Amino acid sequence: MKFLSLVSNSFGCSASGERLVSAARDGDLQEAKALLEYNPRLARYSTFGVRNSPLHYSAAQGHHEIVSLLLESGVDINLRNYRGQTALMQACQYGHWEVVLTLVLFKANMHRADYLNGGTALHLAALNGHSRCIRILLADYIPSVPNFCNILNKRSRTDESILEFDRSSLYQVINSASDGGITALHMAALNGHVDSVHLLIELGASVSEVTVEDGTTIDLIGAGSTPLHYAACGGNAHCCQILIAKGASLTAVNANGWTPLAVAHSWHRDGLEEILTPRVQGQSPLAFPPSPYLCLPFMSIVKIARECGWRSNDSLNTCMDPCVVCLEQKCTVAAEGCYHEFCTRCALYLCSTNCTTTVAHGPPGSIACPLCRHGIVSFVKLEATSAIVKDIARTSLSLSFCTCTALGSDTIETPFCKPDVHSARFPPTGSSFRSLSCHKLSSLKLNSSLCLGASDSKCLKSSYRRSTSINSDRAKAWLCSLHQCVATGIDY
Fold first, then answer.
1. What does DSSP say about strands 411-412 and 367-368: parallel, antiparallel, or unpaired?
2. Residues of the chain with pLDDT under 70
3. What is the pLDDT of residue 467?
4. What percentage of the chain exceeds 70 in pLDDT?
5. d(CA 192, CA 187)
6. Nearest alpha carbon to residue 332 among 311, 353, 318
7. Domains and CATH numbers, the chain
């Protein structure tokens, strides 16, 4: 009887987990709240096989309120599915910037790479041309200072600005390479996403980075290709013009001996011949205005939001002026310069939705104040705004088996699987990709194949090695990316 009771309770928890998955996928916030109030540990449930959690489904569908609910329930924000994708990767792939903003505010790890081709959230956002997601991802690397563009172009070196800006960290993040040495700029250029190419270059993406011989990646262009080679393959003239204007070489030769013009000919992009033909000496390249997605105030408002919160349900006092944008919440921040006051949530939305550089006064990348059109470069916290003390306990445990109570006083605790993940990237010649160790309760002896709850990788082996079939899948994935389709979507 005790055994049957345990089995029935486990199946009941599984059914509740599937209901939460359905609610997260369909955007049913009330159902999700009810299920999590009934059992908060359901937030760590993951589907069998593909190991997609409710957080993955809600992120892929753009339900940012459910994402916030799950994060506040204690789910691991960097939980991976069987492909190694996190919720942040899913949100960037489908362009759900509100979800990306929520995950960034909760400090999601943007450096995690998937198991299929080594791509990060930044690569997926660039591949699909989601410029707004790119800018939100880099919020912690770009300071809210008026002369950021001059500092980035090495035209200004004030001591105050250097303290706030680590150029080397930004350069390393934005030029991080996936398998084959392909950067986010390569991906955006290949698929003809002009806004993303422009933004990445403005933020310091190198136009001279080249791909490498991987051995597991099908590269129809050839190793040693620059972003301009990829833009020539994609056939977008505007992308080629931006890259050339920013210093891309028209005479660079890849491993196949092709210049960008030769790549355009091989892919029958005859309309690019005039653009990719080396210019006469002294001919000036085209000039482009700053990217409309540059938006400098992000770092300042993200820091305030993390410290003081950004969702407030407190009722306003009759003598308190509400935010002039939403007319619902109290003002918590002020725009530096004009000092107009807003609530933190509206300030975040102003930064996220800004896509124009037309301001009355302000440097490139500043956003226009909705009241006076003054260029906002930074937000400052009001004196009356107090910090919140709220430490959400996070765990990497997944809901493999729920804690069940049998007849009498005997209980069975959830088997713990704590992965010790070493995520250092290895050169293509080595096949070892992740190593992890599982520590289970001494009182229980379970087969390691039941440990489906690791947050970073499958706990099927103590040493995970790429097989030939996985290498084949990675090669197919890059082949699909050359034809502007990606097979890294979420499984339903």
1. unpaired
2. 1-13, 48-49, 154-164, 215-218, 280-285, 312-319, 355-361, 389-492
3. 38
4. 68
5. 9
6. 311
7. 298-381 (3.30.40)
Q: What is the residue type of 202?
A: E
Asked if 109 and 421 touch (Cβ cutoff 8 Å), the reply is no
**Do 395 and 41 contact (CB within 8 A), yes or no?**
no
**Distance from CA of residue 236 to its chain's centroid?**
25
**pTM assigned to the model:** 0.75
The residue length of the chain stands at: 492
470 φ, ψ to 5°?
A: -65, -40
Residue with tokens 């009941």: 12
Which residue has tokens 């080249």?
210
What pLDDT does residue 90 have? Answer: 95
